[in-house]
C-alpha cells in the first residue's frame, strides 16, 4: 500500500503534535517531517519531497507566503494545503495564487482535515466554503491569460481611485486600513466598494480580488 507523505509546517508545537498524532492514526498517511516555519522546513526537507505540506500562514522567520513561494519553485510536485487561523479573503486568495490546493481553518473538525487531505491527494484541490470551484477556475484562467484582459478593464472605465482601492483590496489590509492609506473616510471606502460591486456585478471582496487578478490589475 502506497503511503501519502505529509510534512507539517506550523510554529504551534502542541497543535502540530496533535495533528501529527491524528494523521498517523490513518494507515494511508505518513508524517515525514515537522517544522516550526519555512526556514526550518527548508533545512529539514528530505531527499524525497513530501506529497502534501500542511502549511500555516503566520509564522516567525519565514511565513506561509514565503514558504509556498519556495515550494512552488523548488518542489513543484508537492501540494500545499493551508491550515490557518487567518480567515481574511485576501489571505486565502494570496495563498491560492501561490499554488495552495486548499485552505482550511484550524478550528475545523478533524474529520474535515482528513477529507481535505483525501481531496488534495485524489483530486488535486480541496473545495470548501472558503475555496470555491469558481475561484479555482478564475485563478487558472488568470494564470493562462495572454494579456488581452487589460483592455476589458479599461472598457469598464474604472477611475484612478477605484483602481487604487481595488489594488489595496487584494492585500491583507482591512477596509479601515485601506481608508487610512488612501486618506479617506471608511464611509468613502464603502462607497468605492459598493460602486465597484454594482459596476462589475460582483457581490464580495473575494469577487473583487478575482476580478483584479483576471484583469491584470494585480499580478498572479
From TrEMBL:
Domain HTH luxR-type: residue ranges: 151-216
Protein name (database record): Two component transcriptional regulator, LuxR family
InterPro entries reported for this sequence: CheY-like_superfamily (IPR011006), NreC/VraR/RcsB-like_REC (IPR058245), Sig_transdc_resp-reg_C-effctor (IPR016032), Sig_transdc_resp-reg_receiver (IPR001789), Tscrpt_reg_LuxR_C (IPR000792), WalR-like (IPR039420)
Pfam short name (any one): GerE
SMART domains in the cross-refs: HTH_LUXR, REC
Keyword ATP-binding listed: no
Keyword Phosphoprotein belongs to the record: yes
UniProt GO molecular function: DNA binding
Superkingdom field: Bacteria
